[in-house]
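User: For a teaching handout, I'd like to show students what a predicted protein-ligand complex looks like in token form. I'll give you the sequence and the SMILES for flavin-adenine dinucleotide. Please answer with just the structure.
Assistant: Understood, here is the input followed by the structure.
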Amino acid sequence: MTDIIIIGAGPAGVSAALTAKHRNKSVIVISNSAEQSNLWKAKLVENYPGCPGASGQDILKIFRKQLDDAGIEVITARALNALDMGESFSVSCGQDYYDCKALILTVGITQQSTYPGETEFLGRGVSYCATCDGMLYRGKKIAVIGLNEEAEEETALLRSIGCEVEYFDKDRAKNFEIRGGKSVTELIADGIAYPVEGVFILRSTIAPSSFLSGLELDNGHIVTDRTMKTAVKGVFAAGDCTGRPYQLAVAVGEGNTAAISASAYIESK
Ligand SMILES: Cc1cc2nc3c(=O)[nH]c(=O)nc-3n(C[C@H](O)[C@H](O)[C@H](O)COP(=O)(O)OP(=O)(O)OC[C@H]3O[C@@H](n4cnc5c(N)ncnc54)[C@H](O)[C@@H]3O)c2cc1C
């Protein structure tokens, strides 16, 4: 079992991974591609020491090289959820599962809210993963709300296995509500009802409330103490996902603290 799994390879995740490795812990980083870090969009970063004139992309490339040079395993995937198994955690990335003793969430700014009905029907018609759940809807009418880069590819997969797909991208509708009884029966998109048995919501990030139960949230941010400990024992969080200020130096500092705390937690067991 891996000591520490870190979700997200932005500045907070990279900092946490390097520190955990230096504390002699085995580490896996699971993250979307670097392009999906907020830092990727920064044309020029002038307030971070050590790399004057660098863009966000330059800094992320150096970060990635540091991870590779340190021999830290980086898995490019979207983590879908984590289950608290008591003394360990199991992180799902669809068909693949990874176990760890401590978990560090460095997922950046995730969407602040879920659609009405989304959490209520999660696992009862709502899914975040076409590869995992697509076969359950073979021959059935479903909707896909495609908000990430892989959405069209995942929709093609759903169609190829025989799902009848109503596809919504950002331009087709903005407001969604999922309704049903025991399971999903319809999706309301901008006021129009579509009878469906399943709704796939494909985002690059997952709301913390859907990712792991038991986290305390404040306006969508994960609440931590100064040691970056969350409300769930063995789970730590760092960076933009813990709240403002959204800054590179803050993310790096918090990532470092989270890794020190996670390492101490493992050693104390
Ligand atoms: C345009 C712009 C300019 C900026 N300029 C500056 C600046 O000049 N100076 C400064 O200090 N700050 C700047 N910032 C802010 C800075 O980029 C952020 O504070 C910093 O990137 C936060 O790091 P993070 O690691 O917390 O999150 P992020 O950098 O957002 O990284 C989080 C990573 O986790 C991934 N992830 C999320 N959920 C999952 C999941 N379920 N599974 C797998 N991976 C997941 C995300 O895709 C992302 O790659 C800027 C931000 C923007 C948008």
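For the handout, you might add this sentence: Residues 7-13, 30-32, 36-39, 41-42, 45, 47-48, 78-79, 106-108, 204-206, 239-240, 246-249, 251 surround flavin-adenine dinucleotide (CB under 6 Å).
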